[in-house]
């Protein structure tokens, strides 16, 4: 794992090269091998200096997430980390100079190892990034990052760097004090070697700044006016942003606060305790599972039918240049595809292209894109009102008005022009795909691609299979979704598909609470404190109460006797039919939207939904808003709408901003334990009604003591 060589001038090179893996990672085996090599070099009198390098395209990607995901023995983890700290401290204090030659990306544990070297030189590699992404997976840098970074960068810059998980370029890392030098790519080892020889020639012990007499933290310590202000403001900001749902950034703050008031060895011991608390706790497990492993599976197209050759897309058609069509066209053109953007008139189509022009202008203004780059993207969008222009498109996505007959018409017109092997996709948000495919002469090539608004930004695409959609169509549609850089989940055709159906339960539970007399401010605050991006009433306003009402009315019509009325139906009917409060779009919903002031809850709500004298606890409201989503997700799995719990959790996080610290609707059940979840639902069913009654399969799972996920 570590290639070890000593050259004629006494420089030992310890080259990281994990066999069979695309990237170097820190785990028990690789660290043991590195420790052996380091001890050998330190003990060899012929060795004057140590050069740490990588044989891969990048330096080290970080800690091994498989190892971290499995970690549940706090004592073993703590012992392990103590060994790593001891090794890093030995490198720092043994006297021989140690340099890191960073050829590429250096993240997490890789950066921590680099910071434990006396000298760090990076290649001027435009792809290389430096950072501590641990916090984005519910962890903190546990190999000394929280102690060494602030001692190099200063407390405030280090706190931002550690709690935001940002990845910066080499030049910025040098500016921030993390690197000593950036040199032309390919010459980093030479530069490190030159420094080592010079340091060795000087004689004496090479030491880190914090091991030298008179060391001071750059910018001042904790007990300075600046330091105190940083922690006071930092705590408040963090609380506002995370509602204390995410322990990692809070623990990082504590590591730095406590660690900067003591020596580095004590600081490292403090860091270990906070790290072990995180790595063995549920939040990191949930975040690593959903945001890393499940997301990786989805992006690697784990559910793509095999044996279908990968399709490359060069030209697609977009029907409808409205809000969704313009966004999808923008995403595809940005990814390098030619887009024929068709609307009922050329002017409408031009408007869709103008939307792209505006977005590109903003990116140019922010120096994220060159003028030429923007012009090239824009030139790929071809507005038209002529169906003949769709000839040669490999895929056509339909996003015209949500109207069955209209959609049938544009499907027929399109199929008359496109090639026999082209795909047709509908972006409908509510109409079953199987029904829409009836207008198609080749339903096997007909599929649902449900984007989210704003389509150029939102990362998820819910792929919906009609009854007749072929596996090859699914495979090729998945290729398209990846080609435009989005993440797909695959669901079977059903009312509301997966995302709208489960997301809808959050809205309707919020409205049911209102109907029962729960204070509207309590309802929406509970939603946000639960980690949802917006409270349910505010969200109903955003998507429009009118739409909620329309969907409920349509569903009632379609299902007839089978329809189970919901409290939310009455609320929506009253708001829309009687009060004319349609939501944000008309300026009046559960909230008022004054032109010159912030939105605020509508004072008239109290008249129509009198507030109970005795209010439920915050915990009860949160429980209802969150458990109802998990229950509906399980129903989707049982009915075969969803085929995997991984898709459920990825779809929820990316689709409607479900809080990642809970893992996802299924991750939440897993965290509670199925038996506890079932017991809580039974209790809620007694109090609130049958919608909370858990299914037989959940009861069975609970009785068997089985879980949704192994970890
Ligand atoms: P929109 O009203 O902004 O755009 C629809 C566009 O279709 C308009 O530009 C209209 O001129 C054009 N159009 C109408 N008839 C046409 C025809 N015969 N030929 C060509 N173009 C025609 O609507 P929006 O919001 O973009 O929605 C479009 C579709 O996407 C709907 O099916 C909707 O349910 C679905 N959807 C909407 C989402 C949203 O958040 N708005 C999210 C996901 C899906």
Describe this structure in words.
The protein is an alpha/beta fold. It has three domains: 2-203 and 216-280, 2-enoyl-CoA Hydratase, Chain A, domain 1 (Alpha-Beta Complex), CATH 3.90.226.10; 315-496, NAD(P)-binding Rossmann-like Domain (Rossmann fold, 3-Layer(aba) Sandwich); 504-523 and 533-614, N-(1-d-carboxylethyl)-l-norvaline Dehydrogenase, domain 2, CATH 1.10.1040.50. It is 50% helix and 12% strand. It contains 29 helices and 21 strands. The strands form five sheets. An eight-stranded mixed beta sheet has the order 14-13-12-15-16-17-18-19, with helices on both faces. Helix 1 (28-43) runs parallel beside helix 3, helix 3 (74-93) runs antiparallel to helix 11 and helix 14 packs antiparallel against helix 15 (371-379). It is globular, with a radius of gyration of 29 Å. It starts with a strand and ends in a 7-residue tail after the last helix. The relative contact order is 0.06. The structure holds 1,4-dihydronicotinamide adenine dinucleotide. Residues 319-325, 342-344, 348, 399-402, 406, 410, 427-429, 450-451, 453 line the site of 1,4-dihydronicotinamide adenine dinucleotide (NAI). The site of 1,4-dihydronicotinamide adenine dinucleotide (NAI) has 23 residues, from helix 13, helix 16 and strand 17.
């Amino acid at each position: 794992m570590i290639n070890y060589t000593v050259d004629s001038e006494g420089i030992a090179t310890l080259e990281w090269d994990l066999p069979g893996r695309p990237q170097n990672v820190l785990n028990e085996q690789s660290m043991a091998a590195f420790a052996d090599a380091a001890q050998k070099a330190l003990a060899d009198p012929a060795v004057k200096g140590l050069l740490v390098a990588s044989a891969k395209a990048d330096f080290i990607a970080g800690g091994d997430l498989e190892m971290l995901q499995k970690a549940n023995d706090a004592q073993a983890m703590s012992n392990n980390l103590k060994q790593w700290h001891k090794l890093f401290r030995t490198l720092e204090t043994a006297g021989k100079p140690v340099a890191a030659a960073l050829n590429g990306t250096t993240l997490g544990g890789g950066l921590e190892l680099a910071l434990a070297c006396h000298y760090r030189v990076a290649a001027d590699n435009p792809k290389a990034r430096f950072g501590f992404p641990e916090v984005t997976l519910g962890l903190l840098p546990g190999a000394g990052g929280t102690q060494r970074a602030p001692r190099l960068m200063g407390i405030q810059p280090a706190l931002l760097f550690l709690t935001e998980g940002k990845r910066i370029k080499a030049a910025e890392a040098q500016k921030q004090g993390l690197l000593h030098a950036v040199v032309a790519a390919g010459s980093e080892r030479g530069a490190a070697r030159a420094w080592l020889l010079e340091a060795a020639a000087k004689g004496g012990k090479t030491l880190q700044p914090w091991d030298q007499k008179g060391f001071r933290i750059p910018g001042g310590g904790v007990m300075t006016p600046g330091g105190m202000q940083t922690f006071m403001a930092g705590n408040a900001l963090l609380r506002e942003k995370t509602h204390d749902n995410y322990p990692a950034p809070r623990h990082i703050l504590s590591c730095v606060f406590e660690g900067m008031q003591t020596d580095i060895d004590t600081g490292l011991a403090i860091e270990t305790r906070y790290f072990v608390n995180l790595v063995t706790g549920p939040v990191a497990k949930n975040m690593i599972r959903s945001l890393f492993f499940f997301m990786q599976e989805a992006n690697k197209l784990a559910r793509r039918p095999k044996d279908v050759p990968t399709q490359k897309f060069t030209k697609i058609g977009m029907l409808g240049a409205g809000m969704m069509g313009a966004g999808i066209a923008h995403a595809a053109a940005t990814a390098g595809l030619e887009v024929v953007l068709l609307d009922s008139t050329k002017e409408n189509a031009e408007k869709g292209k103008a939307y792209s022009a505006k977005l590109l202008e903003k990116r140019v203004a922010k120096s994220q894109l060159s003028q030429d780059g923007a012009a090239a993207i824009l030139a790929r969008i071809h507005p038209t009102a002529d169906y003949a222009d769709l000839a040669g498109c490999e895929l056509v996505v339909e996003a015209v008005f949500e109207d069955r007959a209209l959609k049938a018409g544009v499907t027929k017109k399109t199929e008359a022009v496109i090639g026999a092997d082209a795909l047709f996709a509908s972006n409908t948000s509510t109409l079953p795909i199987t029904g829409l495919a009836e207008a198609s002469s080749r339903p096997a090539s007909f599929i649902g691609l449900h984007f989210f608004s704003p389509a150029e930004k939102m990362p998820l695409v819910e792929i919906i299979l009609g009854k007749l959609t072929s596996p090859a169509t699914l495979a090729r549609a998945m290729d398209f979704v990846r080609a435009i850089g989005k993440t797909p989940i695959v669901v079977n055709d059903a009312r509301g598909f997966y995302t709208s159906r489960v997301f809808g339960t959050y809205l309707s539970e919020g409205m049911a609470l209102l109907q029962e007399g729960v204070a509207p401010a309590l309802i929406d605050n509970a939603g946000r404190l639960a980690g949802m991006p917006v409270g349910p009433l505010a969200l109903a306003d955003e998507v429009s109460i009118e739409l909620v009402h329309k969907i409920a009315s349509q569903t009632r019509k379609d299902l007839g006797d089978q329809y189970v009325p919901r409290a939310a139906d009455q609320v929506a009917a009253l708001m829309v039919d009687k009060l004319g409060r349609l939501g944000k779009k008309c300026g009046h919903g559960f909230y008022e939207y004054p032109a010159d002031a912030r939105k605020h809850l509508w004072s008239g709500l109290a008249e129509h939904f009198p507030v109970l004298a005795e209010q439920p606890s915050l915990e009860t409201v949160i429980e209802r808003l969150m458990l109802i989503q998990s229950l509906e997700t399980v129903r989707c799995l049982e009915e075969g709408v969803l085929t995997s719990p991984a898709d459920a959790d990825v779809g929820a996080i990316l689709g409607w901003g479900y809080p990642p610290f809970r893992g996802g609707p299924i991750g939440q059940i897993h965290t509670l334990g199925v038996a506890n979840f079932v017991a809580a639902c039974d209790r809620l069913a007694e109090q609130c009604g049958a919608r909370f009654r858990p299914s037989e399969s959940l009861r069975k799972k609970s009785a068997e003591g089985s879980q949704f996920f192994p970890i």
